Amino acid sequence: MGLNLTEYINEKQLLIEEEINQQLNKLMIPDQLKESMQYSFTAGGKRIRPILLIASYQAFRHDFEKVLTTAVALEMIHTYSLIHDDLPAMDDDDLRRGKPTNHKVFDEATAILAGDALLTYSFEIISEDPLLTNEEKVHISKLLSKASGPKGMVAGQILDMEAEKSPVTLKKLEEIHTLKTGELLKFGITAGAYLGQASEEQQRYLNDFSYYLGLIFQVQDDILDVTGDEKKLGKPVGSDIDNEKSTYPSLLGLKGAINKKELYVKEAKTALKKAELVESYLYLLTDYLTQRDH
Question: What total number of domains does the chain contain?
């Protein structure tokens, strides 16, 4: 294929880090708030969502500059969700990516406000992006607000909380993860395709692809909570069992979860083939997310 995925990921991670630093450093805001926002970004992360956005765009265009701000806005919303997920009222986690969670380093109030700031600032930087037309700004903002809001990630989070200590069906589990995890991944892929001017047919197939990719991502998370290396994960394994969460392994067994993941992979790759994007980084990223160990 002639594509080097490792090199691509490393290159895009660096670009995203630089843009994040630029966007945060120019903020003239209280030091405590700024430090809290920066802390969760510098704590690491694979930057999968923004990389998927750039890869989706580059499946149709050679440049990347046009989508860089949108990619960073997406990562800001993902980071805000992690800060809030870790709070005592939510998952009550002490570690994130091998480091103390935001509220442990600062305090709960600061962590909440840092999350709020990242959420709202993401839309501000999109609205000020000189490389997007007004029509593109409105469309991208609509897609992102829907993906992250009450019809998307937030809905998934509340359903996930309700499912704790109460077993759910496989269908319900898929719904939860499609919303909680899949919607932001889907945004990255669909926004990249839209800005890359993919055909309507290709956008439909990529919409299907993103659905299965979101499920792949979550199944692998569930599998790693059983089989993963704590040092690589940066958090304790077995937390899903301790919290009595419904997961793919708890519903299907470990082997069944792996088999279900392979079924999702097949469907995702079929959608990419229909979109005529087998020769793309999206195809390689599918295997990367399927086989990741952290």
Answer: 1
